[in-house]
TrEMBL record:
The gene is gatC. NCBIfam families: gatC (TIGR00135). It is an enzyme of class 6 (ligase). Allows the formation of correctly charged Asn-tRNA(Asn) or Gln-tRNA(Gln) through the transamidation of misacylated Asp-tRNA(Asn) or Glu-tRNA(Gln) in organisms which lack either or both of asparaginyl-tRNA or glutaminyl-tRNA synthetases. The reaction takes place in the presence of glutamine and ATP through an activated phospho-Asp-tRNA(Asn) or phospho-Glu-tRNA(Gln). This is Aspartyl/glutamyl-tRNA(Asn/Gln) amidotransferase subunit C. Keywords: ATP-binding, Ligase, Nucleotide-binding, Protein biosynthesis, Transferase. Belongs to the GatC family. It catalyses: L-aspartyl-tRNA(Asn) + L-glutamine + ATP + H2O = L-asparaginyl-tRNA(Asn) + L-glutamate + ADP + phosphate + 2 H(+); L-glutamyl-tRNA(Gln) + L-glutamine + ATP + H2O = L-glutaminyl-tRNA(Gln) + L-glutamate + ADP + phosphate + H(+). Pfam families: GatC (PF02686). GO terms for molecular function: ATP binding; glutaminyl-tRNA synthase (glutamine-hydrolyzing) activity; transferase activity. Its EC number is 6.3.5.-. GO terms for biological process: glutaminyl-tRNAGln biosynthesis via transamidation; regulation of translational fidelity; translation. Heterotrimer of A, B and C subunits. HAMAP family: GatC.
Amino acid sequence: MSITLKDVEHVAKLARLTLTEQEKEQFTGQLNAILKYAEKLNELNTDDVEPTSHVLPVTNVMRDDVVRESVPVETALKNAPDDEDGQFKVPAVLE
């Protein structure tokens, strides 16, 4: 696969970028170099490699939920700028 000048112009248009002719040529060369480097991965033998969604083993690091006492309402509302009926009172965001 190869990137052409037309491909770079198309992507620049989609991204609403104005590129000079020099930049178009530069990006065409750079993108082709990236693709050429990525093609080296096709040379690897991956027959015995298990498919993964992450390069590192991911485990759940969350603690188990434990039922315990909550903060009293008075303590939670102590530093609130405004409260009403035991709840935080905030300015309306909808009319």
